[in-house]
Amino acid sequence: MVNSLAPGHPDPGSTDRTRLRRIPDKAVTERVTAYEILDAGLVAHLAVLQEGQPFVLPVGYARRGDEVLIHGSSGSRLFRTLAEGVPTCLTVTLLDGMVLARSAFESSMHYRSVMALGSARRLTGDEELDALTVLTEHLLPGRSRDARPPSKKELAATLTLALPLDEISVKVSAGFPDDDPADLIDPIYSKIWAGVVPMFTQFGTPIPDQFTPEDSPVPDYISTWRCE
Ligand SMILES: Cc1cc2nc3c(=O)[nH]c(=O)nc-3n(C[C@H](O)[C@H](O)[C@H](O)COP(=O)(O)OP(=O)(O)OC[C@H]3O[C@@H](n4cnc5c(N)ncnc54)[C@H](O)[C@@H]3O)c2cc1C
Q1: How far is CA 75 from CA 84, 116, 162, 170, in A?
Q2: Tens of pLDDT, residues 95-140
C-alpha cells in the first residue's frame, strides 16, 4: 500500500541526522522503498528515554499515508511517554538472509531497515477509530469484518498514536560476501563454501481455541496472509 509519497518532505537519508555514514552505498533514498518495507513489516521498535535510561520496546504497527500508527495500553510507560510528544526513534527491520563470508569478520546479514525520527501525536475520535481499523487490517488482514469493534471502555484504556514519516532513512543490505581478497587466494579459506542463505518467515496451520465451535470454518482471509 503506497498511497502517498509525502510531497515536500525530505528524501530518506537527506537530513544531517539521517544521512548514512557507515557503508553509505547501502542507503536507499526513494521514499517508495521505505513505505514498501514498512508495509511488509509487522513489528517496530520504539525508543524512549526515562531519567537518562533508554528503553527500546517492540510494538505492532501499521502505516497510514505518511505516518506510522501504533496503539497500546494507557498504562504503558512507552505509550504514556510518547503521548507527551517527546522525540523518539522508530526502526523496522526485515531480515532476509545470512551471509557466509570466508571470514567471520566479513560475514553479515541481508536486511531491509527503516528508521524514523520524530514525535508522535495522540489520535482521538474518528481519527483514532480509523487508525485502529488500519492497524487491525495491517496486522490481521480481513479480520476487521469479523472482530467486535472496540467498546468505549476499551477505547478509554487505549492510547493511539501517529508518528510522522518526515525524517527517515532506509538501509538495505543485499548481495554476496565482500571477502578480504587475501581470503580468496588463501589455500585453506578459498576452498570453503561461501554465499547467502535466504531466510523466510511463514504462518503455520491455524489452531482453533477451545471455545471455537467445531463447525466454525477457518476464515478464508487467513489463507492470503504472507509475512516477510
Ligand atoms: C538486521 C541487521 C543487522 C545488523 N548487524 C550489524 C552488526 O552486527 N554490526 C554492525 O556494525 N552493524 C550492523 N547493522 C547495521 C547497523 O544498523 C548500523 O547501520 C551500523 O552499525 C552503523 O551504525 P552507525 O550509528 O555508525 O550509523 P551511521 O551511518 O552513522 O548512522 C547515521 C544515520 O543513518 C541512518 N541509519 C544507520 N543505520 C541504519 C539502519 N540499519 N537502518 C536505517 N537507517 C540507518 C540513521 O538515520 C542514522 O541516524 C545491522 C543492521 C540490520 C538491519
Answers
A1: 13, 24, 18, 32
A2: 999 999 999 999 999 999 999 999 999 999 999 999 999 999 999 9
Q: Which domains does the chain have, with CATH numbers?
A: 24-224 (2.30.110.10)
Nearest ligand 1 atom to alpha carbon 169? 44
Cβ-based neighbours of 56, under 8 Å, separated by 6 or more = 45, 46, 47
Cα 168-112-59 angle, rounded to 5 deg: 70
Distance 90 CA to ligand 1 centre (A): 13
The protein residue with its alpha carbon nearest to ligand 1, atom 4, reads 109
User: Could you tell me the three cell numbers for 210?
Assistant: 477451545
- pTM score above 0.70: yes
